[in-house]
Write a structure and sequence with these properties.
Length: about 450
Amino acid sequence: MFTESEFTVIAGAGPTGLTLARQLDRHGVPYRIVEKSAKPFDGSRGKGLQPRTLEVLDDLGLVERFLAAGGDYPELLAHLPDGGTHRFRLDEQHAPTPSVPWPNMLMLPQWHTSELLADGIGVEFGVGLTGFTPIDGGIRVTLDTGETVDARWLVGADGGRSTVRKLAGIGFEGETHEEERMFIADVRLTGLDRDHWHVWPGEGRAFRLGLCPLPGDGWFQLTAPPSDLTPAELVAAVDPSITVTEVGWTSEFRANMRMASRFRAGHVFLAGDAAHVHSPAGGQGLNTGIQDAYNLGWKIATGSSAVLDTYEEERLPVAASVLGISTHLHRRHVEGADDAMRRDDPVLRQLSLGYRGATLAAEHRPRPGGVRAGDRAPDAPLHTGGRIFDRLRGPHATLLAFDWAAPLPELSVPVHHVTEAAPVYGTDGPTLLLVRPDNYVGCATHDVADVVAYLGRLGF
């Protein structure tokens, strides 16, 4: 299906780099993934997986493993200064629908997300990147082992302090608020139930402490303003009956909201935190990085530089929009807004993010339906059994035919007649929707010639 692609080097084995490795692996694209840390990340940090990310994991064949390992976000229990309590949720639980099978955010510590994504991926730990230079048709990468690697593409998924971004000379625009910091730690403790996300507000809406139970084997994620106190002392200060028995990963978050000025420089690409860093408010950063990789992987597999140009065209505006949302939520938290912890904006689920109007969104219908070229392809049950997502799953593009009785030419992609899904997709009469390998509608038309031309553009 895809033209033979050359070697890709991925710098960074966090969720973004691992997702990209999985994408390349299933497309048969050779790669190496190197990680300068000597071992996998072991902290909870980005602990929320949004509904759209769960759909990506379904396409990768992993969602059941993630659902088994993770859990729902618990109700928050605020322990008020006057001795009272107040219960509330970040967002109400949503029931699954035919078009959205996983409507709620899944809680899973980042280390576990990485572990599940890394299963079967040959990460080279303790290997960093020190430089690269252009060569004819590609790039020569130098590793800190002294080895040089000639590759067609280099992808920097190496975090907010990205070596790849710095060496590429790509600006990282935005703001860092040094005074806005938060201490984070993974702790085990006794004397506190695991049915709630416990928070202790201080006087005047100030935040004192949060203890969120993590799925799995008894850990809590502790958050508190920076201080000289140990985690045990921070907990004892709000409730002496709670005892910290173990402290794992610790970190100090600072408000850093930045985005790269470009996501591509020749044979170099940026993805995840290397391209954009967010406030953790709203759980957007890790999810956006995974979807960067989901977008980039199949485009690398085409071997087409023109197709790869659309990575920045599509993902940079999305990152800018998501960065704006998370920054707004962060500011509400800093300002002590009454609803600062609410996360009920549907945009946060990332199901509405898309690429309408972009180069690879070919909308040919005079009266487009509710689902248009550039939109996420929604799920829907099928009379023959299964669902739309079953037909889309895998590295291929897919043609969905609605009310289509005319013969179709031999095509390089699977074809499925799914007229029963017309109400979900909002199609009108005989319609063809070509769904890209990342499960966004690429071409929407009433004329099969448009599909043939679109596939030709992608080299399929």
